[in-house]
Amino acid sequence: MQLVHDTITKLTIPTPFAVGDTHVYLLKGDRLSLVDAGVKTKEAWDVLKDQLKELGYYPRDIEQIILTHHHPDHTGLVEEFPRVDILAGHKNNDLWLTRNQEFFKRYEQFYRDFFKASGVPEALSGFLNKLEEPLHFAGKGKLTTYLEENDRLPGHSDWQVIDTKGHAQSHLSFFREADGSLIGGDHILEHISPNPIIEPPHDGEEERAMPLVQYRENLMKCLSLGVSTVYPGHGINVTNIDELLPAQLKKQEQRAAKVFQMLLQEKQTPFQLCQKLFPKQIEKQLDLTMSETTGQLDFLENQEKISKTIIDGIYYYEVN
Length: 320
Description:
There is one protein chain. By secondary structure, the protein is of the alpha/beta class. It is 32% helix and 20% strand. Strand 7 (152-153) and strand 8 form a beta hairpin. Helix 7 (270-277) packs across helix 8 (286-302). The chain is globular and about 65 Å long. The protein starts with 6 loop residues before the first strand and ends with a strand. 40% of the residues are buried.
């Protein structure tokens, strides 16, 4: 039996977001590391310092930060640790950490074009002017180390990098075979199924990714690893992925079947479908509800059950 070298400690930090508290993990091995860095608020920083102090550590003791993905509630405090000389994660984190303005312009234009083509009325697209607002809670920096599938974490050779894109195009998880531990970011959560969020194509890509299709493939990959405990970005530890993940996959299939039934009646735009799926949430959460709706359409299209046509610049989906 392999010996477990590193120890892992969960630290819980408040956020101003609807998702609630976020977790970061103190990893003690050849180096003292934080996996993820909470959100950029004074309250979060004070709470994190207090929890570190209870463990006998101070911010100056942290030597490196490893990111699961780029969302603000996971990167906020990356600048606050004076001794950190390694900032590691998927290369796509850098687009956000460095505030790459060329990318942000493409990002905004992608959403404007995509929402218009999806049939979203101009009157509802005002949120596009606020796409960068969450970055107030995100940290700035630049990765020193890019991580890819099957890499080992620097200073923590027990931990293997697992590509888990879907919720984000920067998402990685970290697996320790010796005891079946998975530091899962937002890939596997017990209380909710993470929203696979649409993003524009990244460098070298001609088409946007299909995040729900990716997400499902990577859930199934995690099922094959022999995971015993998931240390998540939010909520309680997950110790029953053999039950949880098939249930989540089935729910997604049921949602897709609902969309399929709607399309049996007539061909429709993504926005028309979104209105029916999320009548109460669509105006306040247009980006998330449209991402969810598009995910179901991507899944059905990938299954070759439906197809997309473009009429006067607008996407229409119909059953094959």
